Amino acid sequence: DIQMTQSPSSLSASVGDRVTITCQASRDISNYLNWYQQKPGKAPKLLIYDASNLETGVPSRFSGSGSGTDFTFTISSLQPEDFATYYCQQYDNLPDTFGQGTRLDIK
Amino acid sequence: QVQLVQSGAEVKKPGASMKVSCKTSGYTFTTYGITWVRQAPGQGLEWMGWISVYNGNTNYAQNFQGRVTMTADTSASTAYMELRSLRSDDTAVYYCARKKYSSGLVDYWGQGTLVTVSS
After folding, report:
1. Is the Cβ–Cβ distance between B71 and B29 less than 8 Å?
2. What is the pLDDT of residues A38-63, one digit of tens each?
3. I need a labelling partner for B69 at 20 to 30 A (CA). Which of A37, A57, A79, B50 fits?
């Protein structure tokens, strides 16, 4: 199975900050990587697919980059509604595997 | 619009079975697979397996082999996930999600079904 190592596990930031989350795959997954946002009691919401493509309707302050084994997710200017938990997920090989999650809260 | 609507919360006793349904709409059911993911309280996301709705082929995570069965009823555009021999650590929210055949991309998710296993 491909292991996804996501960091940091938690992050405190302020509105307007730029934040970056990383995800490292245990082997090459090309660009088969999603980034999700999850709020308490809700299903994950797809933000970025194929490592760098913004899902329709998702604000442009969210972005993703990377390929192979190293990936980055960035929020350029945090908004109050962005405080949530974020997960990466690889879908290059079954089983699809998730990172451990990054909890983003208000400083 | 694409929707996946799951069945309601359940309470089960240890050793029992559960079966969650996932009714889809807004797209042609057979053109995507369905994947199942669970999330224990306060924990991360755990992939359970997926079913190719087109031909019924399944792939299950090793942790669930022998205890899980995923099926799909194309006439009802509904997928099902059955988990047997329940234990207290199966208490979780169970999600279905749509999975593209071509790329494997998982995009739309159901709202989740809370299953509580308790004596």
Report:
1. no
2. 999 999 999 999 999 999 999 999 99
3. A37
